[in-house]
Design a protein that fits this description.
By secondary structure, the chain is an all-alpha fold. It has a single domain (54-192), classed as Tetracycline Repressor, domain 2 (Orthogonal Bundle). The protein is built from nine helices and no strands. Helix 1 (2-27) crosses helix 3 and helix 3 packs parallel to helix 7. The longest helix is centred in the first third of the chain and has 26 residues, at 2-27. 33% of the residues are buried.
Length: 193
């Protein structure tokens, strides 16, 4: 009986974290309330503290989960093609219209980057760890991985991809949004070739 209760509590905890990971990408950290998360997860607000010590603890787990999901998607995209096409495929997927239009399931860095400096240290720590993972995934796809300057190029590539998607989401003109993505794709794919 105790084992079933533990599994049930773990499943509920996972549901809350999964809901919060989507919510922080959809509405940002400041737009994500405990009450809203619990309601969306189909739970009562009162049950929150059985799973988390604080809102910040939940946000840290949500940031970690959202970052892990984003990194996993990038890794799957890269693994689905021959190694010499992995970086190009990753860039194209990241800067795709689909990623642009699906913030709730996309990269949390784009969705929350400007809010990050104002978050609790535990939230920033979780996000930083996942950002480093994202950089590593990009670096490992590079033809010059392991060579001098490869990590620096991965840093610039990730910064360009994140900045491009952030700007493409920020503008209210679809034509400009598309132009930003297309210009970055053109530049990054030529630079990678």
């Amino acid at each position: 009986m105790k084992r079933a209760a533990t599994r049930s509590k773990e499943a509920t905890h996972e549901r809350i974290v999964e809901t919060a990971a989507r919510a922080i990408r959809r509405t940002g950290y400041d737009g994500t309330s405990v009450a809203d998360i619990m309601k969306e997860a189909g739970l009562t607000h009162g049950g929150f503290y059985a799973h988390f010590a604080s809102r910040e603890a939940m946000l840290a787990e949500a940031a970690d989960r959202a970052g892990a999901e984003s990194t996993a998607v990038s890794s799957r995209v890269a693994a689905a093609v021959p190694p010499e096409q992995a970086l190009q495929s990753l860039i194209q997927a990241y800067l795709s219209k689909e990623h642009l239009e699906n913030a709730e399931l996309g990269c949390p860095v784009v969705a929350n980057g400007s809010e990050m400096p104002r978050q609790a240290p535990e939230v920033r720590r979780a996000a930083t760890r996942r950002i480093k993972e994202m950089i590593d995934v990009v670096a490992r796809q590079s033809p010059d991985w392991g060579q001098p300057g490869a990590h620096e190029r991965a840093l610039a590539l990730v910064a360009t991809m994140v900045g491009t998607l952030l700007l493409a989401r920020a503008v209210d003109e679809p034509k400009l949004s598309d132009a930003l993505r297309q210009a970055a794709l053109k530049h990054l794919l030529v630079a990678d070739a």
